[in-house]
Each structure stands twice: as structure tokens, then as C-alpha cells.
Amino acid sequence: MPPQAKLALKPFAFLAFFFLATLENRSFAAEWNQFRGPTGQGTVETDQLPLQWSEEQNIEWKTAIHDKGWSSPIVCQDKIWMTTASEDGRKLYVIVVQAKDGAILWDRQLFTIADPQFAHKFNSYASPTPVSDGSRVYVTFGSPGTACLDAQTGEVVWKRTDIVCNHFRGAGSSPILFQDLLIMNFDGSDQQFIMALDAATGETRWQTQRSIDYMDLGPDGLPEADGDWRKGFSTPHVAELEGQQRLLSIGSKALYAYEPLTGKEIWHTESRIGHSASSRPTIHRNQIYYLTGFSKGELWAVRPGGQGHVTDTHVRWTFKRSVPNKPSMIAHEDCLFMIHDGGVASCVDTLTGEAIWQERIGGNYSASPIRWKEHIYFFSEEGKTSIIAASKNFVIQHTNQLDGGFMASPAIVDQSLILRSKRHLYRIHP
What pLDDT digit, counting tens, does each position of 24-54 carry? Predict the structure, then answer.
């Protein structure tokens, strides 16, 4: 087991566990069980949350995490789960940390890869975030492998290594749970599909190919840039829209709506500006908001419903200035809050698509923000957290600095922040 370092610890009251079935996701009210939390939207429901911290202030514990992984931590049964990988992608691990004291409970190598795919240095071989149903935890590394583990023992229940696409620059899409299905995006340079596995057995229940024409073929009949414009890194989302459960999934150059139990495509929009989307769709007041991806990405507001290609009929508005490539958005009241990868924060009117304010706060950003009450938290790659007012008036309320930078998004445990930097896991208390 690779070496770890840990600071002084403090006791912590056990976090009560209970199941809560929601309309949007199979989730846990008290546990941060998936990427962006129980609702998948980055909203924190707790009475308290830290507003100020540093390496010398309000750190409950700090635990070193070996190798390299950008997966966000999740919480299951008073345990924090995440993945990591060797720099060369040959060794893929799951790490489980006790929430009360930061001690590493399990550190297990799940897969050994003889010939790893290429992963861009900006990415890692362990970027997808796990998801839990409370009794089991599901982890994926994309094509290298997907596994289900028992939450009590950490033992492997099942594995899959036969779901393959060429991620080209590394995997990034996180899995989600819906009823008894584990749903995953696979948008590679060679193949592009979404699929559902039986959560109990790992068997394939359905698989649906992306339907749009990418319009990227060169004179030789092959995709330009070796298929780079076909990739995607977005995490899907299930929401009830107009009385129907819809699986929303952003692929390259398109947003799709599927029947979640069958994988049947219902409708899609096509965005020729932007590719390789990385953020999770945002749902607010029966509207869908999504980011189209890299290069000249845009923010689109989409009215649900329709059949087939609905771009001309269901796109309400688009927004183009300082739109993020990677971080997801926060919806609150009549506002969308977002942070551009290069450090420009924005508040956009959800009804009109007009900018209410745009301000540069500095730094670079990959992690997705969270909202607690009237506070929005932005986490930079340089280790700075800027807390701004969730308001139509731009106000920086607090700025906090840690030694390591953030690629992963945060988790919440019992009114504490769980922050994964590039080398450490922190628990920060109020």
C-alpha cells in the first residue's frame, strides 16, 4: 500500500444514514452520494457550512492521497470514497477514508492495465466520480474498467472490462444511478453511446448509439482530428420534466433526452459551436440549461418536450460570453451562476439569457461550484476558494487559500466541507 500522511484528528458525531427516494435521482438526503451531491445540482442542504479556513484554521484533518486522480469524493455510511491512478495509468485504485478522522480504511487496486490509452496531462486516469446507493458503491475509469463494491466490506461484487471506446484524452464522465440501473456515457473518438447496466449484476440492460451527424468527415472519409470533435466528458442526469422521467445526456455537439428505463431517444438539440462537453445539465423550474463544451462554447436554455430534432423549436435562448468549458453551473431563484475556466464569474438571468453581472475573480477552474443558502463557492486550480453572494449584486464574501489546487468538486459531511486537492483530502469544519 502506498504511503500516506495524516495530520491530527478530532472526533466527530456519527452521521445518520437514511434513504430518500427523489424524483430526479436515487439519492440520500444526508449523504453526498454522487457527483454534485444528492440532487446532482450542487446544492447543499445543511444548517451550517464553513465560510473561512486556511492551512492553519478550521482544518479537522488532512490526509495525503497517493498518485493522481481528479475524481470527486462521495460519502457512503460515514466513509469517503474516491479513485486514484498511477501516473502511467497502469494501476487503478479505489481509496476509502473514514469521515470522522481521515484515516484510510481501504486502499485497493481494482485494475491493472497493460497498455493504457493516452490521457492528456491535464486529465488523470481516475477522473470519473463514484456513485452510491447506500449499500454498494460503483466506480468507473471508463474503458479500463467499471466495478461494484460492497459499501460495508469494500469487497468487489462485480467488474466489467469489456465496455470499450477510445477516450483519446482520458475518461471524465461520471456514472449515475436510476432505480436499478447504473447509467454511463461513453463518448470516445471512435464510438459514442450511452448505456445502462443492471446495478446488481453488471449485465448490460440497454445501449444506445448517439444519433447526430457530427459533420466532421474529411476528404478521405475519416473523422477530422482523429475523431477529437466527437468526444464528451459530461455526466448524465435524470429529471422529471412535464410529468415524464427523462435521462438528459450531453454528447459532443448535442443534448439528448432518453427514456431512462429503455434508452430510447425522445429528442435532441444540436449545437455546432463547441464540442467535448464536460459539465452536468442544470435543471431549474422545468427548464434545462447546458454548456456546449470546448472552444467557443455556449450556454443554452432548452424547453423540455417535443420529438426528434427540436433545436429550432425548443431552444429559448443562448449566451456566449465567458462560458465555462468544464465547471457545471448553479441555478438559484432567477439566476444561473457560473465560473469560466479562466476565472470570470457570471450571473445570468434564467428567463432572458441576459448577463446580470460578469466579474473576474482570478485563477483557473475545473471543479464545479456549490451553493449553500445565499453563498456560492468557487474552487480554483490554485487552491483558492472564492465565496460570493448568491445574488444579483456581485459581492465577494470570503476568500480562502489552501496549499493544493482543486480539480475535483467538493463533498459535504455533517456540516463540513470535504475538499480533494491534487495531493490531499481535507475535512473543514465551521
Answer: 333 334 699 999 999 999 999 999 999 999 9
DSSP code at position 217: B
Number of residues written out for the chain: 430
Q: What does each C-alpha distance from 221 to 217, 226, 232, 330, 371 come to in angstroms?
A: 5, 11, 22, 41, 47
Specify whether the CB–CB gap between 280 and 258 falls below 8 A. no
Q: What does each C-alpha distance from 323 to 115, 252, 420, 425 come to in angstroms?
A: 36, 16, 24, 29
Chain mean position to CA 133: 17
The three grid cell numbers given for residue 298, joined into one nine-digit string: 455556449
Which among 52, 36, 128 has a CA at the least distance from the CA of 83? 128
- Taking the C-alpha atoms of residue 39 and residue 35, their distance in angstroms, rounded to an integer, is 9
Q: How far apart are the first and last CA of the chain?
A: 33
What is the CATH class of 20-428? mainly beta
Residue 273 is predicted with a pLDDT of 83
Check residue 295 and give its pLDDT: 81
Q: How far apart are CA 250 and CA 269, in angstroms?
A: 10
- Per-residue buried b or exposed e for 12-35, using 16+ beta carbons within 10 Å of the residue's own CB: beebeeeeeeeebbbbbebbbbbb
What are the tens digits of pLDDT across the range 317-327? Answer: 999 999 999 99
Cell (9 digits) for 309:
430534432
- Give dist(CA 27, CA 236) in Å, integer: 15
Angle at 137 between CA 27 and CA 45, to 5 degrees: 30
* Cβ–Cβ under 8 Å, residues 340 and 324: yes
Q: Is 106 helix (H, G, I), strand (E, B) or coil?
A: strand
Which CA distances in Å does 156 have to 13, 45, 55, 141, 339?
29, 32, 36, 15, 38
Q: Taking the C-alpha atoms of 33, 35, 38 and 40 in order, what is their torsion angle to the nearest 10 degrees? A: -160
If you write DSSP's letter for every residue of 29-86 in order, what string do you get?
TTS--STTSTTSS-EE--S------BTTBSEEEEEE--SB--PPPEEETTEEEEEEE-
pLDDT at 30: 61
Residues 410, 179: Cα–Cα separation, whole Å: 25
- Ranges of the chain whose pLDDT falls below 50: 1-29
Q: Which helix (H) or strand (E) holds 312?
A: helix 311-314
Query: Domain ranges in the chain?
Result: 20-428
Distance CA 40, CA 283 (A): 10
Per residue in 259-270, pLDDT (tens digit) is: 999 999 999 999
**Structure-block grid coordinates of residue 154:** 469494500
